[in-house]
Sequence to fold (478 residues):
Amino acid sequence: MTAVTKNIPSGSNLNAAQYFRYPEEIRDDFVKTDDIEFRDGSRVSAAEVWDYLTKVGPVKFPNLYDNSNLFTGRLSHDVTLPFTLKHNYLLMTMHERMTKARAQGHPIVFVQGGQSVDPYYAAGAVALRPASTGIWARRQKEGLTRTEDELEGQRDKQKAYNAISFEVCNSAGYEHIQEGNVPADMVAPYTALRCSDVSYGTEAHRHGPRKDQVKLLLVDYPLDHQKDKEWAIDYFASSLRRLTRAIDEHTGRTTTEEDLAREIKLHNEGRRLAVEIADLWWSAENPPTNGKDRRDLFQLGGMEVHGDPVASLSILREAKTHIEKRVAEHHKTQGVQDKAARLFVCGSCVFPNDFRCEEAGGIIVGNDNHWSDITTIVEESGEPYYELAKAVLSYPYEQPLKDRAAWTVEQIRKSRTDGVLFLYKWGCNTQSAIARLLVDEIKARTGKHTIIIEDDMTRTQTEQLQNRVNAFIEMVSY
Ligand code: SF4
Fold:
């Protein structure tokens, strides 16, 4: 199935040839697929999703329908995978959905990526990491071309450099809160080592313009062989209790252990589904999706990107049946070359352009960052705060180097990776410091080709990054 390029917003002076449209011939099959269910009990049918993506989306967000492969955020052309359409629908409706959730009494809490969000939802909040905060902020601006949208993003990041520090990697999530672009009620990330932006951002918030309106709470995360120390688990469990109590002060309700146990069960289903989908995907003769859809699918196991775990879970459940079918039928995915070089990405928050990698003969098959928390299943039978604390302190990404490397090597083997890239942002202090050590350890244990590349968050170096990645794909392919 190929994409067609037509349907530009009416009255626009945009060039029709550069815009993507979902082809009409897939409509009948798509509208027979499952509804999306939401946390508040409401549902949206596939027919409503279709109408949104073909009529509302192109007018509101022409930048997302820009068809250029130079744009990492362009829509996937794999239109026969219903997951991709529903995932895009959820991303496009972020502003309306989050505004509704807050009006229904769910406080918005800013967190960081790579952490479980079970306790936030158990207490009735919505937990959003910087990427989701950015999606919400950018969905408030309608009718922008891709260039206009990119400029908006640049402006946000420059403001954040001024407000926080020029030394940060700068995901701009905090800036949206300081500016009031998204109405957050609390800043409450785990203080895990993986992300140095947590320290810069929380410190900036402590004296920032919205410090009095937006409560700050640190979920203190002990370090250094933390998973093996009973006191550390007890301490982190008490931090989680403090977190739910602080959210309770907003909502006026009391979060019980049963609430947390129920939420853990729900999130465990998402984590298990993502792992099962990964096992299917990695074992397939041909990659059953392109790299972008793979990443979206695997990451959905964290159930936090859409700000509604029930909605994320509903599309993840349906996606698994489609992936099983594709694997059984030896499906070949449009845009992925035969015998593509399989790449594994280590490090936080940087991804090469999947479409460009596939043009160059590669495909990204996995990454360690967010996958670390998704693969950590929480024990459901014990006291929920203690079990959640024990799981969170055992995230492989947060462990001493040898342990982190051993887990990463296991993922590399399972995904049948040919080459390993460690990518980090300028200003990502922990990951930049650990890159050389981790990559040397991986190389010693697997003998795979490896490369380390630094990128910046300003998007001015995308060609520099891709140029090096493509050269690496060429090297791995021979
Ligand atoms: S790039 Fe590093 S410092 Fe920046 S948000 Fe990601 S993990 Fe945090």
